[in-house]
Design brief:
0% strand; 55% helix; mainly alpha; 1 helix
């Protein structure tokens, strides 16, 4: 026995669209927050010495 009304499919579709829009907005906000954190990060300068770390002591 199907008790759903004729108008419920439109409401269901509208709720799915609204849910997708909210999820998209949330993802965009999280992405913006991540970019702001990356831009605000204090990145250390790279050393100009290319030999740094090239010699590895393999003896224990």
């Amino acid at each position: 026995m199907d008790i759903s009304g004729a108008g419920t499919s439109g409401v269901s579709g509208a709720l799915e669209i609204k849910s997708a829009q909210l999820a998209k907005n949330q993802i965009e906000q999280e992405g913006q927050a991540a970019l702001q954190l990356l831009e605000a990060a204090d990145v250390p300068q790279q050393s100009a010495n290319s030999n740094l770390g090239s010699i590895i002591n393999t003896y224990a």
